[in-house]
Fold this protein.
Amino acid sequence: MTAAALHLHPTDNTCVAVAALQAGELIQAGEHQVQLVEDVPFGHKIALQPIARGRAILKYGQTLGFAARDIEPGQWVHTHNVELGELRLDYAPASETPAPPEPMTDQTFQGYRRADGRYGTRNYLAVISTVNCSASVARYIAERFNGDALQAFPNIDGVVAFRHQSGCAMQFDGLNHRILNRVSGGIAKHPNIGGVLLVGLGCEQAAMGHLVQSQGLLQIGDNGQSHGPVMLSMQDVGGTRKTVEAGIEHVARLLPRANDVRRETAPASELILATECGGSDGNSGITANPAVGVAADLLVACGGTAILAETSEVFGAEHLLTRRAVSAEVANKLIERIEWWKEYASLHGGELDNNPSVGNKAGGLTTIVEKSLGAVAKGGSTALVDVYHYAEPVVAKGFVFMDTPGFDPPSVTGMVAGGANVAVFTTGRGSCFGCKPTPCLKIATNTPMFERLEEDMDINAGQVLSGKTVAEMGREIFDHVLEVASGRPTKSEQLGIGDDEFVPWNVGPVL
């Protein structure tokens, strides 16, 4: 009996197992037929022809590494016989900029219109801790509104405490401070937030007044008076208990106004989609990620925005993005971020090829380049119109990139702080994730994992391995995004996940 495998590109000298295969099995991969000389796990690569030591290993028509020793047809191709080698990428900035997609003007969702004209997909109240020293107080305040406490406010999705491990022992207005301010400010101004309370200790470096001023949280009312979010300092109010009591009173006063909103029809152009992949496997770049790319293209065609991130998981595939940039200037912004990451990793004694995790490798990913080649597929096929620093406000329409780490919580935190009001998260190993205040759709790359973790997974992109086209899967994801944006709860929301996944990126020294 002949088993099937996927031959992804005519030039590839490898194929991918669509099931766990055993030595001696005859496999058919496109026009190639080869007998296995050893067992090969699901999602892993198989050599289709002799590959001499030092020759390129090809997948997706791209080089993912080089043979560390001679590899025979039918052999398992993985970390034991592949090395990254030296990357030689031709960036060719803006040399292959695609034409804009055919516009789609009939796609809508039901959202909350905010005073600044943006639309939210959820309606939360935020209790933002400016420093770790006030994190517990922020949590105590938010917990007061769990359970039936919001029963009289049906249009409010919850009260969330945004807590973190930083806020002090850093250079004032240095890189860490600016990043934390952008994150906190982005949450305070987020279209999914209907009211804000800031809670600080009082002596922290991340001073509340500086946050409010630097992030433009002060607003000018009709009477010409400036006003901003409520701010509580534990040292001024009188300590933990008094600050919790004061915070509960302030949130209670915010509830009626925050509840006084109704969903209304909004064009899909008002959506900003965060795309993330975590717990990736050998199927991520074959099923879920390219399907998300189709959904991203559809959103761009609607006039919306799709964000690709995780710079350390673009390394080795960045040339695919620089070539489709709208200009050399945009391409160079991405290249500058890649060079920064090389220096950053080296400074801390790391290297970018260590990025694939133990689970990634068990799932079939051999090098960072292979992981990156699959990861960039989430960005679809439209032109790259801009590149943003971490947690910067995303204002461009179209496909954009944000500089974030590959670690999922800080990566998604950055995109959400940048304004993403809906998110999709692909996973092959089974990441369980949520990201309040933004709903997050979980997309499985393969059916076995989806069936094991169905309580956490929203969509099974593993259907692509059994006959559904990537285009059909992408359209299903896009339609599901519109439904979730309109209020349909995701699996992570049903499970209550999302409070502890708020993790601002800490890039510098703790002083």
